[in-house]
Amino acid sequence: MKNFRTTHPETGLGWLNTRQAAAHCSCSEKTIERAVRGHRLKFKRLMFSSRYRFRREWLDAWINGEPPDTGTGTPSAEQARNSESGPGRF
């Protein structure tokens, strides 16, 4: 089973649960859960559980309206449109 540390080894920032994430964002837990279900907020799910964990930087990006980083390495459609050297361009 994956063990979530309370603090990140490099940044010293910790994982937040849904209640802590809602407090950080000054919103309700329901709002956080809706953002997760709508794939608008990056999260990690605890193994074999419906519990979520969040990083402060992910929450801050969501608050600022930035799309969640999926970690695939491919740009989103909007990023490709806004890029000067997007796909098919030289």
- The SSE string, one letter per element, is HHEEHH
First CA to last CA: what distance?
46 Å
Q: Name the structural class.
A: mainly alpha
Spatial arrangement of strands, main beta sheet: 1-2
Number of strands: 2
The percentage of residues in β strands lies in under 5%
Q: What share of the residues lie within helices?
A: 25-40%
Quickly count the helices.
4
> Low-confidence parts lasting 5 or more residues at pLDDT below 50?
none
Average residue-wise pLDDT = 78
Radius of gyration: 15 Å
What is the 3D shape? Answer: globular
Largest sheet: 2 strands, antiparallel
List keywords for this structure.
mainly alpha; globular; 4 helices; two-stranded antiparallel ribbon; 90 residues; 34% helix
Provide a concise account of the structure shown.
This protein has 90 residues and is mainly α. It contains four helices and two strands. It has a domain of 54 residues.
